[in-house]
Prior knowledge:
Elements: H1 3-24, H2 27-30, H3 36-42, H4 53-61, E1 69-75, E2 83-88, H5 89-100, H6 106-118, E3 123-125, H7 129-135, H8 141-151, H9 156-162, H10 178-190, E4 194-197, E5 204-207
Parallel strand pairs: 1-3
Antiparallel strand pairs: 1-2, 4-5
Helix pairs in contact: 1-8, 4-5, 4-6, 5-6, 5-7, 8-10
Amino acid sequence: MNDITSVRRRMFRFLVSAAIGFAWISPAHAQHADGNALRDSISMPSRDVAQAPEAFARAVREMSTSPHYVRIRVNDGPGNLGWTSCLPGQELNLAIRREHNLPADQEGIAEAARIAIAHSDRTFTFLNAHALEIVMPKFSEADLIRIRTRLAPLSNDELRAGFSLSPWGRLHEYFRNSKDRDAAACVLIERHMSPGIADLTASIYIDG
């Protein structure tokens, strides 16, 4: 089995889980807390959310030990369905360098950032198997719905406090594994915040 076939099979499993995620939205959610606004915030997993251009540009340019996240749409060929992924911006930069065979020097990093920023719709096509492997989401659509449901009742101020590094926020204990952490970053971007991942603790932090 070649690398592209392997990645495509993984994508197929991801899309199956996405279908399960849609089916998982049940009438019980309709009875949750504050009515239609909260219900809609939970049950729209595939909506397009525009990440602030300056936040996206910073994330793909920086080479940091505590990088910021980006939210993108990815597919593995023209016209394919694709999926949502949230990952540190420098990982997207790396995937673009792999896709375009760019060097890992300052010029290559800058050119990859330029390519990323030029995709104003934040939709990327990767044909290189190694690039695809980098941008594949760790979380499924069902995971994203679950995390969105957990965070939906909290205000943005409560989220900032919950993901504070100092003092240590109470939400960190729920997001220790990478798939939940990446899904939480996706939800925070949907809420128009700028999440990153801290180097020493591998924990989410929020700028703005």
